[in-house]
């Protein structure tokens, strides 16, 4: 592994290491760092060469723009042309935090950073490690999730090492992240704000501040002709090695159906993986059962989703069945990621009974 590894916590920052990391970014290098959502792969957002390095390190398609991270509201006007008052109201409420907003960009932001678009995505993270790094780096850090393209986003430094240990100059280990799913993305380049990616901040929370908000049609329709507006959302985010299906319906029927399929697979000599909530995990006698979190505490499900998917790649399972997690607030974000991982393979128990 080539990367320098440093460890700290959000409560006890290692300022010397953060200064060194900031200098690496100023010199055009790459540093992976924790944020409250997932780990980011940082490069200087205003340096086209650094952005190109990020794409190369991740194996990311170059039409998939990067999010620019700032650590001060005053940094915003230099990189965006027009800040609608609704966006300011949203920033007031949710920045710093798991919210990304898209605006028209100024010439300061290179097209390499925005995947050739004339708009730019901006986020102000709340994690103190991320904030300090961004300040030492000069104020603008482009940072996609620090995974190899096509793998689940990293929620702990070990995941970054697995994927990018040889490709980055430094990894800052700040412990496991708090949220575990990428930020909510809201596009302000249109008359009515549009959600391009669901996240911790739900549509209902956005409506409270913004009034009318649309969901990008490309997110709602799984038709290959309707492309999502966020270029990254059109890619199959992650395909586990084993075949993943989501089983949907009333709890008892889901459990019965998964057990029936697991038993059948066992008879055929296959190994089955099951993703279950803590409340139901003990109801599956056959297969490797991984508990994702508690339905009664939906944040725990969001936090463990990517970790569980990574763990299953290390077990030799042939098929994975997952319960569905349409939880009240984050369900839309959780299911957006899970459905993509499953290639939209859903088994509906209710429909079959009609
Ligand atoms: P990641 O960096 O892995 O969190 O992914 C960033 C997401 O933001 C991708 O889905 C991008 O396509 C999307 N994105 C970034 N900038 C823009 C932009 N200017 N317009 C639309 N989507 C964007
Ligand atoms: Mg990503």
From TrEMBL:
Catalysed reactions, as listed in the record: L-threonine + hydrogencarbonate + ATP = L-threonylcarbamoyladenylate + diphosphate + H2O
GO molecular function ontology, one term from the record: double-stranded RNA binding
Gene Ontology terms: biological process: regulation of translational fidelity; tRNA processing
Residue sites binding ATP per the record: 60, 64, 145, 153, 197, 238
EC number: 2.7.7.87
Superkingdom assignment: Bacteria
A Pfam short name: Sua5_C
Binding of L-threonine, residues: 37, 69, 123, 143, 183
Lipid metabolism as UniProt keyword: no
Database matches in PROSITE patterns: YRDC
A GO CC annotation given for this chain: cytoplasm
Entry keyword set: ATP-binding, Cytoplasm, Nucleotide-binding, Nucleotidyltransferase, Transferase, tRNA processing
InterPro entries membership: DHBP_synth_RibB-like_a/b_dom, Sua5-like_dom, Sua5/YwlC_C, Sua5_C, T(6)A37_SUA5, TC-AMP_synthase_SUA5
Function: Required for the formation of a threonylcarbamoyl group on adenosine at position 37 (t(6)A37) in tRNAs that read codons beginning with adenine.
Name of the molecule in the record: Threonylcarbamoyl-AMP synthase
Source organism per UniProt: Candidatus Blautia faecigallinarum
């Amino acid at each position: 592994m080539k990367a320098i590894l440093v460890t700290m916590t959000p409560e006890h920052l290692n300022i010397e290491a953060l200064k060194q990391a900031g200098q690496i970014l100023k010199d055009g290098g790459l540093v992976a760092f924790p944020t409250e959502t997932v780990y980011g792969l940082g490069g200087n957002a205003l340096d086209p060469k650094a952005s190109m390095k990020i794409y190369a390190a991740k194996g990311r398609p170059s039409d998939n723009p990067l999010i620019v991270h700032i650590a001060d509201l005053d940094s915003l006007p230099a990189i965006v042309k027009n800040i609608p008052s609704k966006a300011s109201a949203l920033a007031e409420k949710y920045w710093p935090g798991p919210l990304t907003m898209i605006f028209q960009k100024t010439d300061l932001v290179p097209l390499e950073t925005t995947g050739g678009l004339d708009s730019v995505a901006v986020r102000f993270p709340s994690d103190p490690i991320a904030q300090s790094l961004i300040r030492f780096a000069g104020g603008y850090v482009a940072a996609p999730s620090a995974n190899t393209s096509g793998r689940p986003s990293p929620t702990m430094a070990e995941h970054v090492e697995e994927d990018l240990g040889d490709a980055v100059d430094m990894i800052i280990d700040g412990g496991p992240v708090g949220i575990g799913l990428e930020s909510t993305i809201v596009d302000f380049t249109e008359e009515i704000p549009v959600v391009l990616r669901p996240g911790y901040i739900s549509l209902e929370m956005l409506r409270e501040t913004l009034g009318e908000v649309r969901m990008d049609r490309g997110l709602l329709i799984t038709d290959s002709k309707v492309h999502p507006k966020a270029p990254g959302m059109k890619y199959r985010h992650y395909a586990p090695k084993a075949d993943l299906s989501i089983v949907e319906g009333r709890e008892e029927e889901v459990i019965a159906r998964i057990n029936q399929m697991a038993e059948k697979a066992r008879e055929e000599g296959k190994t089955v993986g099951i993703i279950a909530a803590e409340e139901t995990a003990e109801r599956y006698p056959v297969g490797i059962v991984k508990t994702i979190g508690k339905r009664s505490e939906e944040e725990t499900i969001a936090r463990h989703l990517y970790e569980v998917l990574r763990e299953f790649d290390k077990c030799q399972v042939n098929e994975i069945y997952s319960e569905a997690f349409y939880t009240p607030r984050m369900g839309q974000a959780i299911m957006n990621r899970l459905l993509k991982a499953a290639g939209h393979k859903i088994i509906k128990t209710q429909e079959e009974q009609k």
